Amino acid sequence: MILALEILVAALLCGVVTLAGFLTQLYVESLRLRPHPGARAFAVFEEVLQPRLKLEPTEGVRRYTMLKQGALIVLTVASIRIVSSDELSLATAAEALLMTFAALAVFGHILPSVLITRTTGEWARSLVGVARALAWTIAPLVVLTGFAKSVAELGGEETKPEANGSPGDIQVFLDVGEEEGFIGQEDRQLIQSVVEFGDKTVREVMTPRPEIAALPADSTIEQVRQAHIAEEYSRIPIYEGSIDNIIGFVHSRDTLEIDRERRQTTKARELSRPLTFVPETKLIHELMRELQQQNAQMAIVVDEYGQTAGLVTMEDMMEEIVGEIRDESEPDLDVVEYPDRSFVASGNLDLDRLAELVGFRPDEDTESTTLGGLVCEQLGQVPDPGAKVRLDGIEIEVLSADERRVRSLRVRRAQDAEGVPARPQERAS
């Protein structure tokens, strides 16, 4: 009778280990930028389980990991009692330990992975109450462990934990990999882009305010449709009063559902879809995850005063990893190369693209993200046509500009320029 009870307890503990392992892996998936495509149960977890469990991802990982560890400890004790009679010998202890390792492998890792990838997770709906009760049961131990860790750190030197794979380490890895031949130039650029992606803010990739194609909310659907055609954008933001009060956007697909007669009278606000608003300082990998969750493609960027600073799309952020994405009908007009090895570029040319063309990267304290902005920052004003700037082996000449911004520039390597003084910057009179 006692043996049967102990076996029943062991079986229940195996179930607890499986459930804890299942939830731990799902919480870990929720912390990733993009959950694994094979995690079929993640959709049910995100829509049903996580809201009802009411735990933040990091707290969920902490609690269910500790629950799994605690259950394994109790399972070890139960295994020893099952395999031993009156006396505990080395052989029975080893046998119990082997049973625990087997339980850890099967119920702690293999079975949860199978449940995540081979089932939809619907079966877990009925166990939410059990999972919540177990999480609250283990909560005091989690708090106690955290308190003990804090006490242990008292009086010690405050050290900043080193991130796994610092930028310097990754750079060394790329250099060695390229020298050894197992990392190609394109692979290196892709890895470098991914590394830099984590630190980039929305401000660095957004379309600036002056270039946003937007319309007043009282524009007709026909006017919006013409804007879609002229600008070749599928989404046009609309605003009330001024562009600082954007209320949404109109999708080209929605305008096609309006018949010709109604296009002249229906206002854009009637087809408005909601938009996400984000600060300039938001990291783009965070925004990308949010837009994925909202099934959205675009967000409006606002400055610290709440005014419109720019617009950012999924495509803008993806281009930071894979490079410029162009349609087959979209010509490459932002850079025109000449036989003398110089090239003419738009003032909106991204500084990352400039680095690809001539190998120039500005100082870390540079605030500008475009070529025109860099010239304005160096000269302290919007320059006149003919102004020149010389920086780290390149010469930049302003070809056209108005009172507000630089529109086009010529860039050449310093050794190819003639009659340019060896000064850090120069402005033509």
Compact summary:
The chain is built from 14 helices and twelve strands.
Folded structure, characterized:
- The N and C termini lie far apart (101 Å).
- 48% of the residues lie in helices and 13% in strands.
- It folds into four domains: 150 residues, no CATH class; 31 residues, no CATH class; 121 residues, Roll (CBS-domain), CATH 3.10.580; 82 residues, Uridine Diphospho-n-acetylenolpyruvylglucosamine Reductase, domain 3, CATH 3.30.465.10.
- The protein has 14 helices and twelve strands.
- The C terminus is likely disordered.
- The radius of gyration is 30 Å and the shape is elongated.
- It is an alpha+beta fold and 429 residues long.
Shape verdict: elongated
Task: Tell me about the largest β-sheet.
Answer: 5 strands, antiparallel
Q: What's the rounded overall pLDDT mean?
A: 80
What's the end-to-end separation, in Å?
Answer: 101 Å
The counted number of beta strands is 12
Uncertain runs:
419-429
- Number of H- or I-type helical stretches: 14
Alpha-beta content class: alpha+beta
- What is the gyration radius calculated from CA atoms? 30 Å
Strand content is: 5-15%
Strand order of the largest sheet: 8-9-12-11-10
Helix fraction bin: 40-55%
Secondary structure topology:
Blueprint: H1 2-30, H2 42-53, H3 57-83, H4 90-118, H5 128-153, H6 167-180, H7 185-197, E1 207-208, E2 215-216, H8 221-231, E3 235-239, E4 246-251, H9 252-255, H10 260-263, E5 276-279, H11 284-294, E6 298-302, E7 308-313, H12 314-322, E8 335-337, E9 343-346, H13 351-358, H14 371-379, E10 388-391, E11 394-401, E12 406-413
Parallel strand pairs: 2-3, 5-6
Antiparallel strand pairs: 1-7, 3-4, 6-7, 8-9, 9-12, 10-11, 11-12
Helix pairs in contact: 1-2, 1-3, 1-4, 3-4, 3-5, 6-7
